[in-house]
Amino acid sequence: MVHRKMHVFFTGEYEGLSGMSEVIMKSSFRLTVIGLLAIFLASSVTAGEGPGRAAIASAHYLATEAGHEILEKGGNAFDAAIAVSAALAVVEPTSSGLGGGAFWLLHRASDNFEVMVDGRERAPAASHKDMYLDANGQVNRDLAVNGPLAGGVPGEVAGLEHLARNYGRLPLAASLQPAIRLARNGFPVDKKFHSLMGYRIDAIKRWPAAARVLLADGEVPPVGYVIKLPDLAWVLEQVAERGARGFYSGPVAERLVKGVRDAGGIWTMDDLAAYRIKEREPIRTQYRGYELVTAPPPSSGGIAIAEILNILEAYPINRLGSVQRTHLIVEAMRRAYRDRGIYLGDPDFVEIPVAMLTSQFYADGLRASIMPERATPSSMLPGNEQIQEGTDTTHFSIIDAEGNMVAATLTVNLPFGSAFMPPGTGLLINNEMDDFSAKPGEPNAYGLIGFTANEIQPFKRPLSSMSPTFMIGKDKRAVIGTPGGARIITMVLLGILDFMQGHQPDSWVALPRFHHQYVPDVISAEQDAFSAEEIAGLKAMGHEVKVRDRTWGNMHGVMWNLETGEVTAGSDPRWPSGRAIVR
């Protein structure tokens, strides 16, 4: 029997509450005893016992099928994760690829070991903090997001080899075969590809190699149009034959570096050869009887989620009216995103006060600053400077028949990354350098702000919002995550809260979404997130609410009910190409 240490706190689920002021007053008693109680929670599942069935939910049906193909050939969840990652790199270039990076959060059932494999992109050696500033000291946004100068050194391929070597059961070459087949034989354009290409086509047209293989006669290809990527198949074959060396050195690396440098980028062969995977200890927090295992820095997701949940722990949020519940969640979001901008960056370069930010005592102090019936303007929170308002990624979740779990979030940043494809490679370079803070207080493409902790430095990994997460309890185990840039953290948070209410994965992934990120000081909401009465109530409390025309995110989750043995999965209905399959 494996024991997990957890802190037990008063839930704040008091009887007879009549208003928010009483909630705050009663929860103040809790503040005097929080942190004094700790117990060991015994897992109800013996290490090695599994559900007997496997579930995979990903953003593309061909990637989900690739994962199941590898499971059927004797692979485990980690081999399947390689197959799904590589297949998505082919069929979903909008959101990930061999020219990007990833976080793979792993749970190994045999010994309940958990780790995050950090395949995040890394700044090249010639990068510097002012590299995107013009003569007037303003950020040149085009250089930061379009073309080869926007690309960090990719980490996905190194991550795939690391998974195979350290956690998988099959050779790397075996797990790459579905992706090689898809690249060579082709795949049909889906609604997501078609839609997002409309957004990025002007950038794609600037780079002939990308335009030649991704467009149809120079225009957005129609849904159903078959795209073949023989150069990408060749790159994958080099990796299958030589492992990561087949990408970071030799002919592939030479094509990558020549293409990047010929177009104005700064990569070198040494940059590629020096890339290394990092294994990170996950962020762990407890919320209402469950242990949450989630992404550590250079992701901001785990710390932000822990901070928000610690703030919410004292409130009976599921018994409050919808307006008051939303108000409290938004105020917790506001404070976590404020801390994200100030404290977080690459832990190999900056000292991050993780223990403080994830402590219940710190959350208690933040909670004390929340006004029960009134919004807190972001300008009133310490650390706010005069910041201007700013003007894709993919995720999959796996549980295998043995109980191994993978939550993986992969990215090239904006749709189609930098839009630049080095000739002869078939892959798009990311534009993750925009995830650094190009200038203190200046928003990036997602409107997120950053300061010195996330400034550009050689070999540094940019801060991310990717939040692959496990929820582990005596009765259920679940895997969740989503793409969505700045909104990833809040989407995963809302999914976690829905899980805590006893709902299934198909509910988490379809749930209407709202978001607040400190700056701009506004609640963004999908069209069906709030009623007119709820919007009026929030505005009366001082919140600004903007209902967006479009949806966001592409969440995929799986769950194992330990009491019934049932395995379920859900794929976000916002994009029909996603698929959740249990076998």
Topology at a glance:
Layout: E1 3-7, H1 20-31, E2 38-42, E3 55-58, H2 61-72, H3 77-91, E4 101-108, E5 113-119, H4 141-145, H5 156-166, H6 172-185, E6 187-188, H7 191-205, H8 208-214, E7 226-227, H9 230-242, H10 245-248, H11 250-262, H12 269-273, E8 278-280, E9 283-287, E10 290-294, H13 301-312, H14 322-343, H15 354-357, H16 360-368, E11 393-399, E12 405-411, E13 469-472, E14 476-480, H17 488-500, H18 505-510, E15 514-515, E16 523-525, H19 532-540, E17 545-547, E18 556-561, E19 567-571, E20 579-582
Parallel strand pairs: 16-17
Antiparallel strand pairs: 1-2, 3-11, 3-20, 4-5, 4-12, 5-8, 6-7, 9-10, 10-13, 11-12, 13-14, 14-18, 15-16, 18-19
- What is the residue-mean pLDDT, rounded to a whole number? 89
Spatially, the strands of the biggest sheet line up as 8-5-4-12-11-3-20
Helix segment tally = 19
- Calculate Rg over CA atoms: 23 Å
N→C terminal distance: 28 Å
Q: Categorize the overall geometry.
A: globular
Helix content: 25-40%
Low-confidence stretches: 1-44, 384-391, 446-450
Report the structural category: alpha+beta
Total domain count: 2
- The proportion of strand residues reads 15-25%
